[in-house]
Amino acid sequence: MIRLFSHRWFTPAFLLFMALLTIAAYSNSFRAPIQFDDSQTLENLLLRDLGNFWLIVENTRGLTQYTFALNYAAGGFEVWGYHAVNLSVHVLNSFLAYFLLLATFRLAKVDEPDSRRFAAFSALLFAVHPVQTQAVTYIVQRMESLSAGFYLLSLLLFVRGASSSAPVKKALMYAGVAVSYFLAFVSAEVAYTLPAVILLYDLCFMAKGAVNLFSRWPVYCLLAALFAYFTVTTIAPLGGLSRPGQESGIEASERHAAALPLRVLKTVSAPAFLAVPEASAEDAGAPLPKDRAEEPGKKSKYGDSAGFGISGVSPKEYLYTQFNAIVYYVALLAVPVNQNIDYDFPWAREFLKAPPVPPGTVLNIPVLPPVVSLFILLAIAGLGLILLFRRREGRDSRARVAGFSIFWFFIILSPTSSFVPIKDALVEHRLYLASLGFFVIFVLAVDRVVFRLISGIVNARLSRQEERGA
Questions:
Q1: d(CA 319, CA 332)
Q2: Where are the domains of the chain?
């Protein structure tokens, strides 16, 4: 087995195997129909013309939106093309996950065969675990997977840049970190946390004291500038913290759509689910009907894509609910059954009392009182801290990888699992990138258990042989 992971052709052979297995796993998704927010996205008239590049990309998640425009230009409303792109992004993300984990285990001074084995099994779980289904087969959640790809690429470029002694290569890698961070964020806001993850990664695996950490000030300055820009222009408005009258990305998209003449639809062959009216001579040049374009500044009847600012749920209640949601995420990763695109997860109104589960809702585990869920999460975070500090004593080089993976999980979930209310208490696609941390911990735990079992069997046989010899 060790010889397999030491072979020089292991990495390319494994990547080919993982790609084929992932394609096989999702081969039945190419005819999956348009669902829920997919139709809302494809109704965006801006996507019908690639010449609307700047109008598209200036909006929230503009890069992902433009990939939908490219899909439409290539194949119209043929769903297999959208699914093919989603699957391609997921396969590439699995490759990036493997290379990032391989670099991480090497930095943690884990033996090369073990580094390859841990990285391979973790990446393979990331590729084919059922919890990834929504991010891959739900067309609109290309936002999540595309953002995750640039997120992983940015961190991998940081590792390459920080490890390089060539000034030109280092500068190019750091520039790539900033560009990838920008592209990740304009794909989906989950990438907002990247600077925090990079800093933690640096402290865990690369920095050898404050001087070494501060030597990378150029890349941290770039990340800080982008972080501040994203906070002011996107995060604060989405969270309801913008100045009065400031236009959000969703409102800007509606304003541009409302300004488009209805005649642009004359050449569009729309499927039935869009129910696009035929343009007539008298209404050519008229603005969109009121049911298809809201007035600028008003809330769209569809809601914004991130779902911030819902009514009926206070920040305190949302926070209580997220304690339960994160525990449920862990249970779902461990036992991926009863998956659902719309969970109707119960809102927790009280800290000490479990919320009632809505009729018809099927969950893997009972919904706990938020205080119990909080204690569980604090215990997991405490374990992460123990593992991070344990590495300073040099007992186990894998411990810091496990500790970092725990905080990777929490940090990446933090934008959607905080106190800022979002319309969906729990959705599976939020786990897409965060799940990589769970998979690493799972692989390390299984390896430890299997190693101890094998060691126990071998030691028992040796003891019996010694007794016979005596």
A1: 20
A2: 308-470
